[in-house]
Amino acid sequence: MKKVIEARLLHMKKHWISLLFWLLIPLVASIGLTTIFSAVQDDSKIPVGIVIEDHNEVTNELFNEISTTSFIEARDLTKDVALYQLKKHEIDSVFVIHGDFADQIREGKRNHIITSYQSNQSFAYSLVKEMVLSYVQQETGRSKTAYIIKELAENYQSDSEWSWDEIISKSKEIEKEEHLLQTSFDFNKVESKSTKNIPLWNIWGIWSIFSMLSTLLLFDWVVKENHSPVLPRFAFMGISFKGYLVRSFGFYSLLLILMDTITLSVFYSLHHVQISMSFIIGMMCYRLILLLGAFLLALLFKNTFRYYVVSFAITLLTMISSGAILPINGLLSRWPWFTAINPLGPLLSGDLINFWPVFLLISSIIWYVRKEQYYA
Asked: CA 121, CA 344: separation in Å to the nearest integer?
């Protein structure tokens, strides 16, 4: 093993630039693209002026709900400044929350509690207006429900006395705990299956694609050495050629696993990604798929250029079909079996059972026990 490590280090010394590049590209590309996507998303938000005449708990909560909308940049402005910016087309529209908003909501009224302004260039006014009205409707709905509950308690002489604030607080608590907009349907007595939604531009999805490409291209050493002119000399050496490949495979595997550990630490520090034991196992399964897949694929080629072409083609096909970059919920609902053959399944979905690790392990064992041409 010592001689193999020395040979690999000698090879790395001559090609350290390309080796370092392909080791770092998954980490660097993932952080860079995620940063770019976040900046573009922030710049694409619609600026909206929100004028709050009386700051209180109800109006501040409404402003926070509007601010959390992904496509809106809510600006807390005075009325004069908001109208001036609207005139200069610096904001899309203006919504004035009147001073009696909290009292009107408490009384269950919903008319003339918000005034809106738009210009001839307010292209998103209708969309933002409907969104703001939905929040107002939500608040008035809670208030109306509170009065109905109090009325029922009085009619049926209930011992429990709930105040208006307690009922509103309880309704918000229930709303957070319950998933009110998730519904499951059954058709033709076929049991429905839930699927996990993968967010667009998931940092692990980006990393998985670049890791696949980098691993495939790093394993071009298998193509080169599998058809090297010195191959017949292994018949007179103290180690078989397969043994040399396996030991070299272990060396590169440790190197890539070490890089995965660094990546996990960096992502956790910068992006606060959630790390669990199931995710770590899924990440290890995906790394095993990449290592064995790249190794076995490289054994099939005699020309490095063809190997590079196929590597890029496989990466592109996986990027489109795996759901790492683009969502494939429709595909999974139509063909559920695709989850079992999706190579990125263990990493993105957390499912530990996958077709590829078992298949590649069996294929590797068959390759290793198969009779070779040269012996030590």
From this structure: 45
DSSP secondary structure letters along 103-158: HHHHTT--SSSEEEEE-TT-TTHHHHHHHHHHHHHHHHHHHHHHHHHHHHHHHTT-
Strand pairing category for 72-76 and 46-52:
parallel
Distance CA(179)–CA(194), nearest Å, equals 14
CB 117 within 8 A of CB 86: yes
Tens digits of per-residue pLDDT, 331-361?
555 665 556 667 776 676 666 567 788 888 9
Residues 295, 300, 304, 306, CA torsion sign:
negative
Determine phi and psi for 180, rounding to 5 degrees: -70, -20
For residue 175, how far is the Cα from the chain centroid?
25
AA identity, residue 342? N
Rounded to the nearest 10 degrees, the angle between the axes of helix 16-43 and helix 2-14 is 60
User: Which CATH code is given to the segment(s) 46-177?
Assistant: 3.40.190.10
Give the start-end residues of each E strand in the chain.
46-52, 72-76, 93-97, 114-118
Provide the Cα torsion 79, 101, 139, 199; round to 10°: 10
Regarding predicted confidence, which is higher, 274 or 237?
274
